[in-house]
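Researcher: Sequence of DMT family transporter follows. Predict its structure.
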Amino acid sequence: MDTGNGVVSLAAYGTRDTVQLFALTALTMCAFAANSVLNRLAVADGSIGALEFAAVRVAAGALALGIIVLLRRRGWRSSTPFASAVALTGYMLGFSLAYLSIGAGAGALILFGTVQITMFVAALRAGEDIPTGRWVGTALAFLGLVVLVGRIDPTFGQVLAIISMAAAGLGWGIYSLLGRAEADPLGATTVAFVLALPVVAVAALASGSGAFSARGLVLASLSGALTSGLGYALWYAILPRLQRTSAALAQLSVPVLAALGGVTFIGEPVTLHLTLATILVVGGVTLGIKSGKARARR
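Model: Prediction complete. Tokens:
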């Protein structure tokens, strides 16, 4: 009888733990997608300048992460502090500038696709044995970006936005690759935010836009402290409990969530090309991940 009760209790605990992990993962993905929505909301109507948004976001994120690191009473460690800070700075600046001219969903899709392509190129340079399925998946993801970009108005602002978001994706991809070797990802992220802050602040001052409003400051602070700082902290807390493939697949939801957020909160249209591009990118990356998992099993 006691043994039976023990089994039931363990099963119940396992179910609760799984549900909790799923809920925390979903919350984190929503936080990542919210960065796109908050940035677009703030800069599209001129509530705050793009580079000013980036500066406030980095400052709020550095403050939130610094408090978390101090509370855990451990030092700030990073094996590649300056390289990580440069990559993070490129991501932050490119991300904010892009949302002057493109929608939240389209921007997240370009960012996400560029990150995956960056990871793929890094694997090639490292001499990794790339399975056929991953080649096909990467080609599909790239095709999705071509479909999306090919339908964007070829104005100077749109072209600049695409280049800016691609640069942001490159920066985030490099930052993620550097972070794989970090023994303390949270501490390393805090160091990167702190080191990136002066550069981003100088860029904001040099832009001379001076666009500030209470609404813009609130949105940028939320993006920095809540959906970036605390979002990253939560992600690093649950990563050890996720399989690598599960973690990668979870991030596939970010462009979709960003597009839904753009429709709901900004009134952005759902176009056929955005839908097709999303299917190609998400499907391609999913194929690549599954192919890698099958190769690992063999």
